[in-house]
């Protein structure tokens, strides 16, 4: 009888795939079972709203590993497989077909699901969401020249889809309940940059309104807003946020609060179960609070950290939240974490103004009492390490000279000397 340990990973996305890879790289010789609901092998999601939608990224490039990697590394990858329960007492996961798989350690990396629009007509054809490869394919087919696209939600996904659709020649209207795009994430000062950029590329915004109804016969043909405006639409893409897939954890009695609650080791309230990626609300040692991060880098780095923790290594997951976006000719990276009301000013290095549709080059720093809590570089490259050093110092309580912070002539590395 085989007595080697079995590690089961629920969720065959980036976090789960990188966890499986790390287990093998760290010398784990036991059984690794990777379970995913989608029919595809693990892939990365950023291209779905960026390069894949634009047509600049070949489909083969979105996958985490080559097709033969899983067999070659003795990883039992099971796609199109749904987990319906966790029996913590028996140390088993239950599959939809009734099969039970025993585990010594379990990693929950099941990701998240787009929030659904709850209005009349939301079930019409042509109302799309973006989460999977198949979703990206459907949107790409719809956002052709002369199409009329309405995007509901001016978050990262909504704006990236809007930019890709404009590149394909579609007419694009974005509806947002806030007064600016990305307002809650970036604040007014930087949010205006994105509003100006999209307007200069022909996007129409409707701010401060919601959706009352989607209209059409069989297929959506218009969007009725709460202020009475009616927008023509061939296709509607909804991007109003995501919900962590915590159903399994809740049913199993794990601690859940805006995600599966973990400590800094990514260990849940059960000593045999870890969580990583979108679904984990993890204690961050530097920030001294639990945070749930929905971005690519958290899956990329959180999966390996969880794997090492499962192996009993001394792990503290201290990566700063990081994300990136590409919209038209603007490429940006953001590092750090700050609450919407947690800063007293934004310090710019460079001019953030959009001029004749051309994206600016600048840095922005969210500052509280002289401490840098987050930073963003827009069309300025190879500064992420320096920005993250400033952010780490800021969250540790160290202030910097704000005049020097704003001065492009002062190297970022000199601010902490």
TrEMBL record:
Pfam families: Pyr_redox_2 (PF07992), Reductase_C (PF14759)
Cofactor annotation: FAD
Reductase C-terminal domain residues: 322-415
Keyword list, A-Z: FAD, Flavoprotein, Oxidoreductase
Taxonomic superkingdom: Bacteria
GO cellular component: cytoplasm
GO MF annotations in UniProt: oxidoreductase activity, acting on NAD(P)H
Residues annotated as domain FAD/NAD(P)-binding: 7-302
InterPro entries (alphabetical): FAD-oxidoreductase/Apoptosis, FAD/NAD-bd_sf, FAD/NAD-binding_dom, FAD/NAD-linked_Rdtase_dimer_sf, Reductase_C
Protein's name according to its UniProt entry: FAD-dependent oxidoreductase
Organism: Micromonospora sicca
């Amino acid at each position: 009888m085989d007595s080697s340990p079995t590690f089961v990973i629920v969720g065959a996305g980036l976090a789960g795939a990188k966890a499986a890879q790390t287990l093998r790289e760290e010398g784990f010789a036991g059984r690794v079972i990777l379970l995913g609901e989608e029919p595809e092998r693990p892939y990365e999601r950023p291209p779905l709203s960026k390069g894949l939608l634009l047509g600049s990224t070949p489909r083969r490039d979105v996958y985490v590993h080559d097709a033969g990697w899983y067999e070659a590394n003795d990883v039992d990858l099971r796609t199109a497989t749904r987990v319906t329960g966790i029996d913590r007492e028996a140390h088993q996961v239950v599959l939809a077909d009734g099969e039970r798989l025993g585990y010594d350690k379990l990693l929950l990396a099941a990701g998240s699901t787009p929030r659904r629009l709850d209005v009349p007509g939301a079930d019409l054809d042509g109302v799309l969401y973006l989460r999977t490869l198949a979703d990206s394919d459907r949107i790409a087919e719809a956002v052709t020249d002369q199409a009329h696209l309405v995007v509901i939600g001016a978050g990262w996904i909504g704006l990236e889809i809007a930019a890709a659709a404009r590149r394909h020649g579609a007419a694009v209207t974005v509806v947002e309940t806030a007064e600016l795009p990305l307002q809650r994430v970036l604040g007014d000062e930087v949010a205006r940059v994105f509003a100006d950029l999209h307007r200069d590329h022909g996007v129409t915004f409707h701010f401060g309104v919601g959706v009352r109804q989607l209209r059409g016969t069989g297929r959506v043909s218009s969007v009725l807003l709460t202020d009475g405006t009616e927008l023509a639409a061939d296709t509607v893409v909804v991007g109003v946020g995501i919900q962590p897939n915590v159903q399994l954890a809740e049913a199993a009695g794990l601690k859940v609060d805006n995600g599966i609650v973990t400590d800094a080791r990514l260990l849940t309230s059960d000593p045999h179960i870890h969580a990583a990626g979108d679904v984990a609300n993890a204690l961050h040692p530097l920030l001294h609070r639990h945070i749930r991060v929905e971005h690519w880098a958290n899956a990329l780095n959180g999966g390996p950290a969880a794997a090492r923790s499962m192996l009993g290594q001394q792990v503290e997951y201290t990566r700063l939240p990081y994300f990136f976006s590409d919209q038209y000719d603007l490429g940006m990276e953001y590092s750090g974490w700050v609450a919407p009301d947690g800063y007293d000013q934004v310090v710019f290095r460079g001019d953030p103004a959009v001029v004749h549709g051309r994206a600016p080059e600048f840095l922005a720093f969210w500052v509280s009492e002289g401490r840098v809590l987050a930073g963003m570089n827009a069309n300025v490259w190879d500064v992420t390490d320096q920005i993250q050093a400033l952010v780490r110092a800021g969250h540790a309580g160290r202030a910097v000279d704000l005049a020097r912070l704003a001065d492009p002539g002062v190297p970022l590395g000199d601010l902490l000397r």
